[in-house]
Amino acid sequence: MARQFSLAAQLPPVSLLAAAADAAGRTSSYRSLKNALKAYIVAEVNQGNAATVQFSILQAKDVSGTGSKAITAVPTWLVNDTSVSDALIAQVAAASFTTDATLKDKLVVFEITPEACMDVANGFRSIAISTGASNAANVTRAELLVLGSYQAATPPSTYSN
Questions:
Q1: How far is CA 128 from CA 16, 37, 148, in A?
Q2: In the record, which residues are listed under signal peptide (predicted)?
Q3: pLDDT > 70: percent of the chain
Q4: If you placed Cys at 61, which of 27, 66, 69, 151 could pair as Cys (CB 3.0 to 4.6 Å)?
C-alpha cells in the first residue's frame, strides 16, 4: 500500500536564499503564506569561519516587503553539527536564532503558524529570512516549506499576494 504523503503536493519546498557567502548579511525575497496552515523555514550554514551567524524571520504585508517587521517567537530547532547528527534539538522559541562560532555545518528550523506569530489581523501574510553580518567564509542558504490549507495538483504560488 502506498503512503498517502507527497512532499511536492503537501509540503512543496520554495527557495528563499540560494547558497552564498554571507559576510554582509542579506534578506531573502518575501513569499506569501496566504494559503498556509503552517510553514517551516530551514536555514543552513556551512560555517567556515568562527563567527556567529544570525537568522531572523521577517513578515510583511505583501511579497514586495511592505511594512516589514519581525515576527513573534516561534518554535525553533537546531542541528549543531550535521556531520554527526540529524537530531533536531528544540531551542527557546524566538523570532531569530544565532549560531555558536564552532566550524560546523548547521541546520536551523523555524516553525511558522501564521495566525500565532504574524500580524495577520493587519494584513501581514508574507515572510522572509534575513542573515546578520558574519564572515565571507560562512555560506548560508534557506528554504521555505509550506503546508497549504488544501491539496492541489499545483499548489498556490508563494510568489504572488
A1: 7, 17, 17
A2: 1-20
A3: 94
A4: 66
* Cα dist from 32 to 40, 68, 92, whole Å: 13, 13, 26
Q: What is the DSSP letter of 52?
A: -
Strands 74-79 and 54-60 come out as unpaired
* Adjacency order of strands within the sheet including 89-94: 13-21, 138-148, 36-47, 105-112, 74-79, 89-94
What phi and psi values does residue 7 have, to the nearest 5 degrees?
-55, -45
pLDDT tens for residues 121-131?
Answer: 999 999 999 99
d(CA 144, CA 128) in angstroms, rounded, equals: 9
Check if the beta carbon of residue 126 is closer than 8 Å to that of residue 33: yes
Distance CA 101, CA 9 (A): 37
CB neighbour list of residue 6: distance below 8 Å, 6 or more residues apart: none
Under the banding of pLDDT at 50, 70 and 90, the label for residue 151 is low
Q: Give the pLDDT band (50/70/90) at residue 94.
A: very high
* Distances from the Cα of 54 to the Cα of 33, 34, 126, 129, 149, angstroms: 23, 26, 20, 10, 30
User: Where do the domains of the chain lie, and which CATH numbers do they carry?
Assistant: 11-148 (2.60.120.380)
